[in-house]
Amino acid sequence: DGGTRAGWALHGGSGATLQSASGNWFARLSSARPLLTHNRSYLPAPLDLARPVQLSLSLRRSGTAGADDLLRIEIQGSGDEVATPVPGAVWSVASIGTSFAPVHVSIPAGLCGRTSRLHIVLDGGGNGIASTVDIDDIIVTVPPRAADLNGDSRIDGTDLGMLLAAWGICGSCAADINRDGQVNAVDLAALLASWG
User: Fold this and answer.
1) Which of 19, 56, 65, 154 lies 20 to 30 Å from 31, alpha-carbon distance?
2) Is residue 187 packed enough to be buried (19+ CB in 10 Å), middle (13-18) or exposed (0-12)?
3) Are the CB atoms for 88 and 135 separated by under 8 Å?
């Protein structure tokens, strides 16, 4: 084990790979430590299936990039025998820049609503791993329901008032729940159907 910080643990060969830069901890994956796991991740169910739970993280390549090396994210629910790859969460290490840059991944609803292990894996694609990747700022966010116009996690009279105040043609206002360019009875019906 390469060390643990706030539930994150690195696994693999030898050497400490949880790094500190001015008190900011980040993980370094390499051939010595190709797996970063969080053992206490509760991935909440999305509030609105049209707005999936998002996983955001910052990546940078801090060493050479192996031609076949991939970085991927997997989720293993408690009781699952193996981890499930997250669709769209695979990157060629060669495509990752040398400065931290954010990436965002939608987590399928079927992988949410339970306690899971989140795995971030550096894979040599059948060959030895030749890359080093740093990972920082890992955040899971649950977007509010579309009808929650003020973002307070409730759909109530305040949201209804905001919708009525925006009634009519609108470019890209929050009250246009179905995003058709106007606030009308369709949006009102969506808000009322989500009430509570």
Assistant:
1) 56
2) buried
3) no
Q: How far is CA 78 from the centre of its chain?
A: 19
pLDDT digits (tens, 9 = 90+) for 63-105: 777 778 999 999 998 888 999 999 999 999 999 999 999 999 9
Number of CB atoms found within 10 A of residue 181's CB: 12
pLDDT of residue 112: 87
Quick: pLDDT tens for 102-143: 999 999 888 888 888 889 998 887 778 888 888 888 888 887
Q: Compute the distance between CA of residue 34 and CA of residue 10 in angstroms, rounded to an integer.
A: 8
SS (H, E, C) 72-105: EEEEEECCCCCCEEEEEEEEEHHHCCCCCEEEEE
Instruction: Provide the CB-side half-sphere exposure for 154 (13 A, CA).
Output: 4
Q: Do 69 and 92 meet the contact criterion of CB atoms below 8 Å apart?
A: yes
* Residue closest to 65 by CA, chosen among 39, 88, 91, 43: 91
50-71 pLDDT, tens digit per residue, is 778 889 999 999 877 777 899 9
Please give the distance of CA 118 from its chain centroid, rounded to a whole number. 10
